[in-house]
Design a protein that fits this description.
Helices cover 81% and strands 0% of the residues. It is mainly α. It has 2 domains: 16-218, no CATH class; 221-434, no CATH class.
Length: 434
């Protein structure tokens, strides 16, 4: 009995990485989903559309603000014994880089929010700026914690808008205060993210080691830039369709499309959890130059993430109108076709596994960047054409097409460059001879 109690206590306080990452991503997805349910049930379609577009810009701005420094920090700290002066120099270099890139990102994001929403009110613009800056800090700190500890801090602070922790506080604030405009909704998120970002970064600095007088790590920005380009283009692929929709569609149509995209998170969630849980082991296997270990890790990740993602996708394909009605209201049933199209593309992503992460952790981040840039350049063009001709269904077709091209190419390059097949399989995999 004591043994069972001990195992349960260990599972709660120090669960395996996949479970911890999965719970963190589930909590984030549920929080974001609840915010969308609250929006659609309490606000007009105008507010739903404008808030969704603003949030997508802020999410992209936060990633652009950290510009790959988080991933490079994770990779570098994974090989350090802590605390150490060299690890602190790496963290200082990352923080200095983010201070510069986040400033540029905040400016671009704030202008983008004003232009796409056609609203330059001080509250909205200030809130967008603060939320973007706080998001960049949280991205950096959470990946630093992931490399240096096994605690919950990284899982509750990683992801859009600062992760599950800030999002859940935000949702509770929405329920309690009932704001009625896009600006006030974003203002709540900005304040919460800013309050939580500083202590998380401070705790990482204490864990890594005291500040030193040594020279900062040279070339950090140049080394982080390929990761940054991959991250930013990845967010562009998740958001550019919304921005095109803000230009071409009526608010009602855009609100319906945004709701369909929200349900898609249940398919993406397992793979996102696998990315967080297995990216550090992939980095260590890559540093050891062990294709067989990378193949083993990639196969294990696909087996953990693929089946639940496919099962969730099949449910969405079978009951799109009913699920939209249940979550957001009967009016949102009109987005059923867009949901079906988007689901097909996301299921393909789940089947290909951690192809992009395997390439990046093995030093092929420049290749990943090129593939992502190609897809990101194609999406606005396809979205413009699709939305002009077919409305929300056309936007969904553009996104699904780019998803197929992007992850098909990354899977192929992982196989050719690394000798690793990242897709979901039932049989035991061995590294491909290249």
């Amino acid at each position: 009995m004591a043994s069972v109690s001990t195992r349960v206590r260990t599972l709660i306080t120090d669960p395996p990485p996949m479970i911890r990452a999965g719970l963190g991503r589930v909590a984030l997805a549920l929080g974001i989903a609840l915010s969308m349910v609250w929006l659609t049930r309490t606000q007009s379609t105008d507010v739903v559309a404008s808030t969704t577009v603003a949030l997508s810009l802020i999410a992209t701005g936060g990633v652009a603000g950290v510009f790959g420094s988080n991933r490079l920090l994770l990779r570098e700290l994974a090989g350090h014994d802590l605390p150490s002066s060299s690890a602190r120099q790496t963290l200082d270099a990352a923080a200095a880089t983010v201070a510069k890139t986040a400033t540029a990102s905040v400016i671009v994001t704030t202008v983008g929010v004003g232009v796409l929403l056609r609203d330059f009110s001080p509250l909205l613009l200030a809130s967008a700026a603060i939320a973007t800056a706080a998001g960049a800090v949280l991205y950096l700190a959470s990946d630093g914690h992931r490399a240096t500890s096994t605690g919950w801090a990284s899982e509750l602070s990683f992801g859009r808008y600062g992760g599950a922790g800030p999002v859940w506080v935000w949702v509770l604030a929405l329920l309690a205060l009932q704001p009625s405009s896009s600006a006030s909704i974003i203002a709540l998120l900005a304040g919460i993210s800013a309050v939580l970002a500083a202590p998380l970064l401070w705790s990482l600095m204490k864990r890594v080691g005291p500040s030193t007088a040594g020279a900062p790590t040279p070339g950090f920005f140049a080394d982080a830039a390929p990761f940054g380009m991959t991250q930013v283009t990845g967010l562009l692929l998740q958001s550019a369709d919304l921005w095109v929709g803000a230009l071409l569609l009526e608010s009602r149509e855009l609100a319906f499309y945004a709701a369909a995209r929200q349900l898609l998170m249940v398919v993406a969630l397992p793979l996102q959890a696998a990315q967080l849980a297995f990216v550090a082991p992939l980095a260590r296997a890559a540093q050891a130059k062990s294709p067989s270990d990378m193949q083993r890790i990639a196969t294990r990740a696909a087996r953990r993430a693929g089946p639940p993602a496919i099962a969730a996708g099949l449910v969405l394909l079978a009951l799109p109108r009913q699920l939209l009605d249940l979550a957001f209201g009967s009016d949102y049933r009109e987005a059923a076709l867009a949901l079906v199209i988007l689901t097909g593309g996301q299921m393909f992503n789940a089947l290909t596994g951690l192809c992009g992460q395997a390439l990046s952790m093995a030093g092929e981040e420049r290749l990943v960047t090129k593939v992502n840039i190609g897809a990101a350049a194609a999406l606005p063009v396809l979205s413009l054409a699709g939305a002009s001709m077919f409305g929300t269904a056309g936007l969904a077709l553009a996104v699904a097409s780019c998803t197929l091209g992007l992850f098909g190419a990354l899977w192929w390059f992982a196989r050719v460059r690394l000798g690793v097949e990242t897709h979901l399989r039932l049989t035991t995999a061995t590294a491909v001879t290249v």
